Amino acid sequence: MKDRVVCLIPAYNEEERIGAVIDVVKSCRFVDRVYVIDDGSSDRTAEVAHEKGVNVLRLSQNMGKAYAVFFGVENTQSSIVLLLDADLVNLKVKDVENLLLPVLEDRADMTVGVFSEGRFSTDLAQKISPFLSGQRAIKRWVFDRILESRKDIKESGYAIEIILTEYAKKLKLRVETVQLPQVSHVMKEEKLGLLKGAQHRMKMYREILKGYVNLRKSRDEI
Ligand SMILES: O=c1ccn([C@@H]2O[C@H](COP(=O)(O)OP(=O)(O)O)[C@@H](O)[C@H]2O)c(=O)[nH]1
Ligand SMILES: O=C(O)[C@@H](COP(=O)(O)O)O[C@H]1O[C@H](CO)[C@@H](O)[C@H](O)[C@H]1O
């Protein structure tokens, strides 16, 4: 029987964090299958995922977040796709259920999870830019539509979320925001140290900006 919900977890060097996310998502009764897309990690991310008993799709080099997500989309089947980052902290089964239920019950085409009541810094970031959130449940046809009109989508790295947000507007999707109380993520500076973290953050902002400019250029093609 075809899966209803597949969870995709794009992951780049997340060996220390991904196990906890997998444990939670595996415990959610609504999730039929979990796939980690190992985006060319140089650490044991893929091994940890294997040990946890989920499916692993491995990219031989680091291709960026959008590539990893769409590689997962192209290599799975299900009517609903759940996207979760690999570095979430305090994620609970209830949060995963809350993300999925509006889409499962066809009250929404997309849900967007936002952190609240957790760490000040990550709550604030999501208050300012909830449209960047990587926690979403989405009907698969939305990805199909994006792939049809944006052949370059896989190259967009961290712009994937603003692209999803823009398509949601253009396609007039029913979008529901879901609170993720006490959930946070490990920030780049915490993972990589101050300097490397800041460099990685700048890379993220560059990719988001480039994605935004490309969206404006291709406005009418959606
Ligand atoms: O080149 C990349 C960069 C990030 N990620 C994954 O995308 C998610 C969000 O990325 P990141 O943690 O850098 O963003 P943050 O959570 O810090 O906003 C995480 O699961 C990363 O491991 C990825 O698959 N490929
Ligand atoms: O919240 C944010 O400002 C960024 C960066 O988070 P950190 O640098 O790790 O605190 O994270 C979000 O944006 C990325 C790009 O859209 C998404 O890929 C992440 O999933 C999301 O958490």
Automatic annotation (TrEMBL):
Cofactors required: Mg(2+)
Transferase keyword on record: yes
Protein name according to UniProt: Glucosyl-3-phosphoglycerate synthase
Domain Glycosyltransferase 2-like: 8-129
Pfam short name (any one): Glycos_transf_2
Stated family: Belongs to the glycosyltransferase 2 family.
Lineage: Bacteria, Bacillati, Bacillota, Bacillota incertae sedis, Caldicellulosiruptorales
Organism encoding this protein: Caldicellulosiruptor morganii
Keywords annotated in UniProt: Glycosyltransferase, Magnesium, Transferase
Swiss-Prot/TrEMBL catalytic activity: (2R)-3-phosphoglycerate + UDP-alpha-D-glucose = (2R)-2-O-(alpha-D-glucopyranosyl)-3-phospho-glycerate + UDP + H(+); an NDP-alpha-D-glucose + (2R)-3-phosphoglycerate = (2R)-2-O-(alpha-D-glucopyranosyl)-3-phospho-glycerate + a ribonucleoside 5'-diphosphate + H(+)
InterPro entries assigned to the protein according to its UniProt record, in alphabetical order: Glyco_trans_2-like, Glycosyltransferase_2, Nucleotide-diphossugar_trans
EC number: 2.4.1.266
Top-rank taxon, per record: Bacteria
